Amino acid sequence: MKKVRFISHLFLSAFMLFAASCSDDKDDPINQLPDETDDSKPRVFHIAARFDGRDSEVYMAGVEDLSKGSLSFKGNGYAINPVRSARVFTDNLGWVYVFDYGGGYLQKFSYNNGSYTKVKELDVAPVMGGVPHVRPWKINEETILIHNIIARDIEDSGNGINKEADMYVTRMEIPLVAIADILETWTIPAEAWDVEEKAYVFRVDAPTVLDDKIYYGLGRRAIDNTIPLTGMHTIVLDYPSLTNPKYIRSEKGTGNTNGYRGGNMHAIGEYVYQANRATGENATMILRLKDGEYDNNWEFNVTAALGETFNTNNWYHAGNGICYVSAQFTNAEDENNQWGVVRMDLNNKTAIKMNVPMSDLFGYQNGVTIDDKFYMAVSPVGSTGESAPFVYIFDIDSTDPNAFTKGLELDKGNIFVEGIF
Amino acid sequence: MAMRVIVGIVFFLLSLSVFGERPVNVIRGRVVSDNNEPLPGATVFIQNTTQGVQTDANGYFTLHASIEGDMTIVASYIGYQPMAKTVSANANNSGGPHRLHYVLTENTENLEEVLVRGESRAARIERSGFAVTSVDTRHLQKKSAEINEVLDRTPGLRVRRDGGMGSRTQYNINGLSGSAVRIFIDGVPAESYGSSYSVNSIPISLIERIDVYKGVVPIEFGNDAMGGAINIVTKQLKNESGSNRALNASYSYGSFNTHRADVTGSWRNYKSGITTRFSTFYNSSDNNYYVWSDDIKIKDYNEFLPDGSRNPDFLTIIDQGVKVRRFNDAYESYGAKVDVGVTGKSWADQLFFTINVSEDYKESQHGPRMISPYGERFTEGWTVAPAVNFVKNNALFEGLNVSMDFQYSVSERSTVDTTTNRYDWFGNLVPHVRGVTRLPGEARNASLNVNNNKNYIARGSASYNLNENHLLGVNYSNNYFIRSSDDKLRAAELRNYGSENIANKQITGITYQNTLFNEKLRNSIFAKHYYNNLKQDRIEYNSGVLDTIRYSRPDDNWGYGATTSFAVTPAIRFNASVEKAVRLVTANEVFGNVSDEIVESVNLEPEKSLNVNFGGMFTLHNSNRNQLRLNTNFFFRNTYDRIKRSIVVRGDDSHSVFNNIGHIVSKGVEAQLDYRIGVKWHFMLQGYYLDSRFMEEFAQNGSVNLNYKSREPNMPYLTFGGSAEYNKENLFKQGDRISVNWYSAYINEFHFDWSIIGNQNKPIVPSQFLNDVSISYLFPGEKLTLSLDGKNIFNEMAFDNFAVQRPGRTLSAKIAYAFF
């Protein structure tokens, strides 16, 4: 076996020499700029969809016009084929980034004339503790962050806490796709509120950068189910160095702040805005943070503004403090279609429910803003209503619940559009 | 290591049991027709005794006679005049075996009367009306073949393996697979022998034949074999067979440091009727074959450049599809089976006590796909299974045949995955990244999981011949299976803490069979009642204390079916069969499993299928030297309530849940053409086409299924096979025999996911054309055989499953010796 390894080594070394000597700028993927940089061509939107409820059957397809026509995944689209599930991101240059959750690979694609070409691929597991089940989020045009929490069983040291959570973060530079900074594995301390409520941090996501700080929403889990969890929490790190982590709390709202697959926190103006995943009769609250602290002088009770109980796991900032919220109304009659879209104005603290069809937006992840319009896909499930999946185009400036039009028509049936990127 | 002690004791007992045999006279020879065609399955027996044998596929026989003096030895065959020859044998006969050559003349007068009597058991099973392929393994015993390879050449059956020796194996019969297809060893469900005793563990020299039932399964297999059953029939020492002792050994060595050895033997005392049989096996392989598919990704592990700055290519894939050698895939298994009992008693035709022990060790190279290599993960397991078997024909009164089996088995399987090391595809350690704490466990979680299984099986069957042409039969089986598991490295809230899953399956079958019109027409009807009582004693960690919660769900189902077989002429026979079959639900599917993150699905219904077969056996040409035969079967499967795993969201996390959401209709055809020229040449061609479509128009939530009427994914649907075999005797010396065989298989590409969505980068198992050769040489004296086998000789990239490459060219040599 030793001998085999030695020979393999020789081969690898020889190969690397060969590869190094052969490389020239033409083959360098960084120089293979996609269509987008050519200003004469229109922007391409990438639509990701999951088929038949299977997270590992994820496809993406490009479309130039979201306002009309139709897009079908029948015989069309790139099979991302992840081990467990996939996340898609795009940048302003037109690159498409895909993270294979479960495989641990961050992939970069170019898109030309309807076809995707993989130009770079990177294995993040070795910098994430050897674990490929980690979460990515593109926070700006320069950065994708990869992050994870691993909660371990420990001996109860007398405070009722028998879990300890380690946090891993890696900063990935884009469009290069190269590792830029790595957080030294940080053990999240059990703070007084964790000891009191017998809880621990089990997940972080929705990272948002503002100035020299990065803010992570987080999820807590109860060790003792009989004690209800309260508060909203954030982990703050110095950015871009990924040092000096802090774990902070606000008691203005109750619920986890990690959202689902990112999208629960946004840097708007001078602040980072954060929502909770409200459970039961708790209100959906927007809080804001700055300089690594919660702003204790500001809150927005969206439930009160709307006048109806709901919760959210993802919301999208369309500009000027106008946001569109994936909103679950748990008392909705049709259990397959409990989700609506709420327009929320952070400046005026108002909220209205848009008159789009109810659907299932649990796994919906992204919409796009073009000029003064916000585009997102709404795919009602099932035969209870007219199943008419479309890209809905919202007029950002209007406070009319009917201020939207139907755009691109999508496939009816057991394919779920996860987002427009 | 208690197992090693047990195995040692068993070996010791075996060594005692082979002492004290009487000398026997060995009579070898051949039975051919008057136009020099071999007569396979002809009966050769010593007149006025019960000692006799049947000829093999080439008409050869070896008869062990325990009597001395003059013997009259009779050869008979359907449609031929029997012939008697006399030999003189004495105890000090040292001149080697007696040789007898019989040339039988055709008997045209009484053809119909003797139509059935001389049939081999395999041929008789194929004429029962069931869609069954009976593989006579006697001619395979010289080859270093694996049973799974033999099965894979059976029309309608696909064996899909994840890798080399010991890898996970899935059987697919005419489009149904997974737990819809059940494996039996002498009628006992193979899963009760534990995972350390697999189909491949059974020495091929111990196997008489393998029956593959497609979709319609006789009642004596008391299990929910909805898609079909594979029954491995081991050699039985029958009262009338010739020898009172046998000892065979074989050893093979091949590519990837693969060793296979087995010793099998038997001994019977005629006076006392005490019979001892044993078989032992040892298999091991490094399985370090080369793989070079695109999933083999080579990364740059230099975190920093020589100038101390970050390497922009750190962890980037710098090459793909590199040829690498697997390095953590070794497999070892060994075990023994001993039967001691009596035969031919007035109170029992057969009463055997059996113990089967085995142990295995298997390394794990990667997860379900070859994404990342593991360097240390492995599993190991052991099984101890004692059993009793009782057979009595004409019990209580004439025509009532009774048999009973009892088996208890205890087995354990543990998974060990605790390392914080990570490996690259060259088997090198991946360097640590400073400041990053690495977690233990190469697969998703660190694991020290231990599964404990206990299984009790009681089976009884009785048949009564109302008269010569009418038979009534009943069969009852009671299988009580207890599985508990725990993984002390799992997070507290995800541990099973030894929660017990209990499945009690009680299956009762009743059948009526008749034979009409001089046995030209055979019919059977049957009904099965399935009682399935599932229980789970779930131990849960709740607010700091362990609670036990009890769940239970009994359910009842009926199945029924019929078969018919009609011989239009001796050369044309049609078979038809139909069954409404059931695949029962399991405890994990119904109650969930904390550790596997499966949530409960209390209303889950068993899967059901209406299975129909129509086929026939046609002798298209039968002349003096040449024979052309066609076996074909059309099949139809209407499967509904198919159980499918899907994802549900509970709280913050996604979990698996099992639902009945599939209606699948499968149609297809399989055919095999055999052409024999004398005994020298045998050519075979086979083809298989499956059209399996998803027929659910709407999803459970009411959405339109875009895959309505689409071809079912991850299912090979078009395959062809062909072989040519050449046999020559007296090549170098009188009495030797050489056999050369070439086998080619073509598997058409198939989609891993639904084919209708997407058009780029679709996961596809590619088309493959694989070729195997084997050559074997039987030395004069018929004791020693040498064989050489080459599999996948053109070193093609071979896949049974998506992105999991199977071995390339594999060579092996085997030596087999029959001591007596």
Question: If you had to describe this structure to a student in words, what would you say it looks like?
Answer:
The complex is a heterodimer of chains A (421) and B (820). By secondary structure, chain A is mostly beta strands. Helices cover 8% and strands 45% of the residues of chain A. The longest helix of chain A has 21 residues. Chain A is globular, with a radius of gyration of 22 Å. Chain B folds into two domains: 104 residues, Immunoglobulin-like (Sandwich), CATH 2.60.40; 538 residues, Maltoporin, Chain A (Beta Barrel), CATH 2.40.170.20. Chain B is built from four helices and 45 strands. Chain B has a 22-stranded antiparallel beta barrel. A five-stranded mixed beta sheet of chain B has the order 8-14-15-12-13. The longest helix of chain B is centred in the N-terminal third of the chain and has 16 residues. Chain A: Keywords: Signal.
List the helices and strands and how they pair.
The complex is a heterodimer of chains A (421) and B (820).
Chain A lengths: L1 H21 L22 E7 L6 E6 L14 E2 L5 E6 L5 E6 L3 E8 L2 E9 L11 E6 L2 E11 L9 E11 L4 E5 L3 E3 L3 H6 L1 E12 L2 E10 L9 E7 L4 E8 L14 E4 L2 E5 L9 E6 L2 E2 L5 E2 H5 L4 E9 L2 E7 L10 E7 L4 E4 L14 E3 L2 E6 L11 E6 L8 E6 L5 E6 L1
Antiparallel strand pairs in A: 1-2, 1-30, 2-3, 4-5, 5-6, 6-7, 8-9, 9-10, 10-11, 10-12, 13-14, 14-15, 15-16, 17-18, 18-19, 19-20, 19-21, 22-23, 23-24, 24-25, 26-27, 27-28, 28-29
Chain B lengths: L1 H16 L7 E9 L9 E4 L5 E3 L5 E6 L3 E8 L6 E7 L8 E7 L16 H6 L5 E5 L10 H6 L4 E5 L7 E5 L2 E2 L3 E5 L2 E2 L17 E8 L13 E7 L10 E10 L3 E11 L5 E12 L4 E2 L5 E3 L17 E4 L3 E2 L5 E13 L6 E14 L14 E15 L7 E17 L32 E19 L2 E18 L12 E17 L4 E22 L2 E25 L2 E12 L3 H5 L15 E16 L3 E25 L2 E25 L3 E14 L23 E12 L7 E11 L2 E2 L12 E2 L2 E11 L5 E8 L6 E4 L2 E3 L3 E9 L2
Parallel strand pairs in B: 1-7, 12-15
Antiparallel strand pairs in B: 1-4, 2-3, 2-5, 5-6, 8-14, 9-10, 10-11, 12-13, 14-15, 16-17, 16-45, 17-18, 18-23, 19-22, 20-21, 23-24, 24-25, 25-26, 26-27, 27-28, 28-29, 29-30, 30-31, 31-32, 32-33, 33-34, 34-35, 35-36, 36-37, 37-38, 38-41, 39-40, 41-42, 42-45, 43-44
